[in-house]
Inverse folding.
């Protein structure tokens, strides 16, 4: 597989100089951290078993960038993984460590931007560049039926990765659209900021997952 169509960036991916330099600085500062593009989290049954792909924004500095597993080590992961376990989309116990034994069920988790961005804010060029990995990530799952995007940036990048126009599928919490051979669900991001400010309640988040779980049963 050529580098351009690989679903995973190399550990030293140079494509976004700002993110590359940011990670390099954190490697100096925290050599024990993961400090690299965070790979897609896959279920033990492999990519053929994946029917749902969850797309987050980007690794958190002290979360996925530290631990090397999406949504692991920061608040967003607690709500996400607890909700997934309750819906049968993950099994085990989430203990916020990559060796906690938590397993995904029929689901993979990735990020629209694989490298931690300063202040959690990737710029447009970085989001566009990293789509070179999002596209083959979507394509690698032959039995994919649904994608859940968390937040508007993940939504827009996924819509573009599917070859659609952002204006034709605007982001909205609770959104659901068939496109590109999959059903695209969207939710507000499960960040601490969104839950603290009441933009996203636990009930709202659970209800999106209930809809997806029901959809996947059919
Ligand atoms: N951690 C991730 O891996 N992605 C997010 O979007 C937020 C936290």
């Amino acid at each position: 597989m050529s580098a351009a169509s690989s679903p995973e960036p190399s550990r030293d991916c140079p494509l976004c100089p700002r993110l590359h330099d940011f990670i390099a600085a954190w490697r100096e500062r925290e050599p024990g951290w993961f400090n690299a593009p965070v790979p897609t989290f896959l279920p033990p049954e492999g990519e053929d078993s994946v029917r749902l792909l969850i797309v987050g924004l980007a690794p958190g500095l002290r979360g996925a960038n530290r631990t090397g597993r999406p949504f692991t080590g920061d608040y967003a992961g607690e709500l996400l993984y607890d909700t997934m376990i309750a819906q049968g989309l993950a099994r085990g116990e989430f203990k916020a460590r990559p060796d906690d034994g938590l397993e995904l069920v029929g689901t993979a988790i990735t990020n629209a931007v694989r490298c931690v961005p300063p202040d959690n804010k990737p710029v447009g060029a970085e989001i566009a560049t990293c789509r070179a990995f999002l596209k083959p990530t979507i394509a690698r799952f032959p039995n994919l039926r649904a994608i859940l995007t968390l937040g508007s940036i993940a939504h827009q990048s996924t819509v573009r990765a599917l070859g659609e126009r952002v204006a034709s599928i605007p982001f909205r919490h609770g959104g659901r659209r068939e496109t590109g051979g999959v059903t695209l669900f969207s939710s507000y991001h499960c960040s601490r900021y969104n839950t603290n400010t009441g933009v996203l309640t636990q009930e709202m988040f659970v209800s999106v997952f209930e809809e997806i779980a029901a959809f996947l049963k059919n």
Notes: The longest strand covers residues 182-187.
